[in-house]
Amino acid sequence: MPLAGQFVGDGVRLIRPVGRGSHSVVYFAVSKEGTPCAVKIFPLHLAAYADREYENAAPLDHPRLVRVLERTTVQDQPALVVTLARGETLFDRYAARPALTEERRAFLLTLVHLLDALAYLHARGMVHRDIKPENIVAEPDGSAKLVDFDLSGPLHEVLNAPTRMGTAAFQSPEAYRGEPLGPESDLYGVGVLLGWGLHGSVLEPGETPPHSDDPLSHLHIILTRRDPAARPNNALWARAELLALAGLPY
């Protein structure tokens, strides 16, 4: 049975699929008041991910994060109703590359908003664990929101078995090894995105960055250090350093 047109939760109407999360299909939807929103629908066997995301993300409220509003079901499949992030995913938004050459101010604003979101998460004892272009939605002026919390969890959480968290190209070395993760792991992902903005491509882990005269290349190197103990773990520091190196006011 087609899902489009169905009503779920508290009068939310599904309109059309618009993308995928790490473990879900995402639908554009409209609330009974006419407010646009999104619904993430999980396969039944991944219900634990929906429950975990609701438990971890429902208390979060920040302008640079989507809000998780309701845990519901769609045709007996677990689902979450979340606020709508307007714009395009980061790689689609910055199709002209390198982004820091083609649209410097907008891309810097996107990174600032990403670091604002991470500072809020980290201050509340959470790590996102999946910083990647698909989870950053940016508007034409560069304003951005961080989405998709189904891999998020407490700082330095010890799982029952080593689990590789995140997406390979943006994954910190410690995430690849399945170790407990702290803020420095999220900031590694920011560093990878900064390198992409500088060079127009994602560098391989351990690859020496091409020479760049951009002062932001220094921050890129610091944020992508292989040793997590040598990497910054403070998103507000990274935000201030980003703006200082870019020569912009705080």
From TrEMBL:
The keyword Kinase applies. It comes from the Bacteria. Its EC number is 2.7.11.1. ATP binds at K40. Residues 12-250 form the Protein kinase domain. The keyword ATP-binding applies. Keywords: ATP-binding, Kinase, Nucleotide-binding, Transferase. One of its GO terms (molecular function) is protein serine/threonine kinase activity. This is Serine/threonine-protein kinase.
